[in-house]
Design goal:
This protein has about 425 residues and is mainly beta. The chain is built from five helices and 23 strands. Strands 1, 4, 8, 9, 12, 13, 16, 19 and 22 form a nine-stranded mixed sheet that branches. β17 and β18 form a beta hairpin. α3 packs antiparallel against α4. The longest helix is centred in the N-terminal third of the chain and has 12 residues.
């Protein structure tokens, strides 16, 4: 074994080194009460799952992270990158191949502590949908929506948000939108309602989201989202039956900032509802565009496709016609709907165009493909497809600062790059 600089590391054991690597990169999910199927926070559990660990490391699928890197030793561009450093990967594989010595428990680090209830810490408020939603054992369910009033009498600046389904095994995703306060005379209802997801909802962006690999957001101290006084929260659910009938009564927790932040965070969706993927196509591209009408500071990205999603790219076409790659995902995995949070925000000037391109594999070579013999278009269910590139950004003033466009934009006469 060797340190990053080449110096040999002697007598590597589970307690003096391997447990620290697992604490840093794995046990947030792989622990009792975590979202992973088995724990990795003690020696016996690691031994039981040693073969799975070795396979996942060699295939590069764990920890889950799919953004391309321009160099192994450079600092990640993303503050939530859980990837193993090359030296850590070498040590783990060598330890697994070298007899997996346990070592002296006195050398072990202190156990990592996790909040019992909420990853974001103690919430200022918890909102729960009013009644449980019945989820049948089999079949396909339509999207389901519930409107919950907040009844706040003043604006709230929200720094942290977390969504917790009570039956996470059947929740494919949850999106929460903010709706305006109800005015006197408005016809409204707060009962459960069955509705179709609309393109407009995706374009205007979500307030909070729950998908596999992404259930909470904790913004920097100078940033927050606005929740206007009296506004309502519209919860949109996509349930996926798993063979056992159950019910779900999802909760949403929030932590408020003490004052108006320097950066007001918004979300927009770059979409193309006109996608058409031919039968058998193994690398079919589709693109959506969003024109920047005010200076924008990009903070994070969250791409979304379904079972045929293969790769994804965000690019900015600047007003001078130059193209800048913002995020490259060469191997997209629909099982991990990750957000990619920039360590250093990217400033885009007014007049830029953000281009989101997804590549789809509709061939028989895609083991997740339900039917390679049919053309695939936009739809809500997993066997259909979507092209959505969410962006998280700040702009001043905190109003509508970008406008979506599902048709190709024309940023300049010099073209759009690729």
């Amino acid at each position: 074994l060797a340190e990053p600089g080449g110096k040999p590391v002697a007598n590597v054991t589970f307690h003096n080194r391997i447990s620290r690597i697992l604490q840093q990169h794995c046990v947030v999910c792989h622990r009792d009460g975590g979202s992973a199927p088995f724990a990795l926070d003690n020696y016996n559990d690691v031994m039981t799952n040693a073969a799975a660990i070795e396979s996942a490391i060699n295939r590069g699928v764990m920890p889950p992270w799919f953004a391309a890197s321009s160099g192994h030793d450079e600092k990640s561009r993303f503050i939530n990158d859980p990837s193993l450093a090359p030296a850590d990967k070498v040590e783990l594989l060598a330890w697994l191949a070298g007899g997996t010595p346990e070592g002296d428990a006195a050398d072990a680090p202190l156990p990592r502590q996790f909040p019992l209830n909420w990853q974001i810490g103690k919430p200022d408020v918890v909102v729960q949908i009013p009644r449980p939603v019945a989820v049948k054992a089999t079949g396909t369910l339509p999207y389901y929506e519930v409107i919950v009033p907040t009844e706040f009498t003043e604006d709230k600046w929200v720094r942290s948000i977390e969504i917790q389904p009570t039956a996470p095994s059947v929740v494919h995703h949850v999106l929460v939108y903010v709706e305006a306060a109800v005015r006197p005379g408005d016809k409204t209802r707060t009962d459960d309602v069955h509705v179709d997801e609309t393109v407009d909802n995706l374009r205007r962006g979500y307030f909070a989201a729950y998908v596999s690999g992404n259930s909470s957001i904790q913004l920097p101290a100078d940033s927050a989202k606005l929740l206007p006084a009296g506004s309502r929260l519209r919860f949109q659910f996509h349930y996926a039956p798993n063979g056992i009938a159950t019910s779900d009564q999802t909760r949403l927790a929030m932590v408020f900032a003490k004052q108006r932040p320097q950066n007001v965070i918004q979300v927009k969706g770059i979409i193309n509802p006109n996608i058409s993927i031919p039968p058998g196509a193994a690398n079919h591209p589709e693109t959506g565009f969003l024109r920047v009408s005010k200076d924008m500071r990009l903070m994070a990205f969250l791409p979304h496709m379904h079972l045929r999603g293969k790769a994804f790219r965000y690019e900015a076409v600047l007003p001078d016609g130059k193209t800048q790659v913002l995020l490259e995902i060469p191997r997209y995995d629909t099982n991990w709907q990750l957000a990619y949070r920039l360590a250093e925000p990217i400033d885009l000037p007014r007049g830029s165009v953000i281009r989101a391109t997804g590549w789809f594999d509709n061939s028989a070579g895609n083991p997740a493909n339900p039917d390679p013999m049919r053309a695939v278009s936009w739809g809500l269910q997993a066997e259909e497809e979507m092209l959505v590139g969410f962006i998280e950004f700040s702009a001043t003033p905190p109003a509508r600062s970008v406008e979506g466009n599902s048709k190709p934009a024309r940023p300049s006469r010099r073209g759009t790059g690729r």
